[in-house]
Amino acid sequence: MKIIHEQLSLEPFNPINIIQSRFQEFPKHWHAEIELIYVKEGTQVVELSGATYTLKEEDILLIGSGEVHSFPFQSSSSSLIIFHLGRSIFEPYSDYIFNSEFPTPIIEPTNEFYRLLGESILKIVNLRNEKVLGGELFLKAEINKLAGNIIKYVPVKQLMDNEKKKRLEQLKLLERVLIHIDQNYDQEITLEEAANISGVSIFHFSRLFKKLIGVNFIQFLNETRITKAMILLQNKEDPISEIAFKVGFNSIQTFNRWFMQINGFTPSQYRAKYE
């Protein structure tokens, strides 16, 4: 479950990336663009900056620039519309919105300004799919309307001028460690080894990791292993003890304890769902 620095290529005319797809899992990642998630069908759990949000159908979630987020593994998929919004969409307010966080990121249908955002999201998708004369202009107008409503109605928490830039630099510092975890989660990885890879002291690494990822290094490593195990557990042929060792745990007791702590049920109970 590596953290991906997702470098998006947005169109010059309409700097917005639109994804419509079904998801069961997406690893921890971050990008400079603001992300908007709209749930078309089902429910979707999102981990964002150390907090966990459960989105229901038609809920909207806003994610600020440079914030680490993921979709933890879930047994059933959800249908989502995802927008990545570039800086130029928000001009002349881009510095204001990109140097901010969303303290209450979920916008539910009961919210007083929900209709303004929800209607724009669906119109943008429809206009993007239509191929009509002048359609690009209507699309650009609707994107601008969405951006304006976000700026006008969505509460934000302003950061210090250099705080966002510093966070992006710190995320890049951790990138090699997180790639190493993704590639070697089945091996022993110590805190000291991770700090050495990042090139900073253990003390500085531990503080930085918890601040940016939302959990400490050991928690993240074992969450990664448990996520891999949950996929393997859907195969009824492999013994649970074999799966525990395959994903990097040195005892079945440790594996069971972490599995229960993270999920609230045992590996056997999880496997029973697929029998």
TrEMBL record:
<keyword id="KW-0805">Transcription regulation</keyword>
<dbReference type="Pfam" id="PF12833">
    <property type="entry name" value="HTH_18"/>
</dbReference>
<dbReference type="Pfam" id="PF02311">
    <property type="entry name" value="AraC_binding"/>
</dbReference>
<keyword id="KW-0804">Transcription</keyword>
<feature type="domain" description="HTH araC/xylS-type">
    <location>
        <begin position="175"/>
        <end position="273"/>
    </location>
</feature>
<protein>
    <submittedName>
        <fullName>Helix-turn-helix domain-containing protein</fullName>
    </submittedName>
</protein>
<dbReference type="InterPro" id="IPR020449">
    <property type="entry name" value="Tscrpt_reg_AraC-type_HTH"/>
</dbReference>
<keyword id="KW-0238">DNA-binding</keyword>
<dbReference type="InterPro" id="IPR014710">
    <property type="entry name" value="RmlC-like_jellyroll"/>
</dbReference>
<dbReference type="InterPro" id="IPR009057">
    <property type="entry name" value="Homeodomain-like_sf"/>
</dbReference>
<dbReference type="InterPro" id="IPR003313">
    <property type="entry name" value="AraC-bd"/>
</dbReference>
<dbReference type="InterPro" id="IPR037923">
    <property type="entry name" value="HTH-like"/>
</dbReference>
<dbReference type="InterPro" id="IPR018060">
    <property type="entry name" value="HTH_AraC"/>
</dbReference>
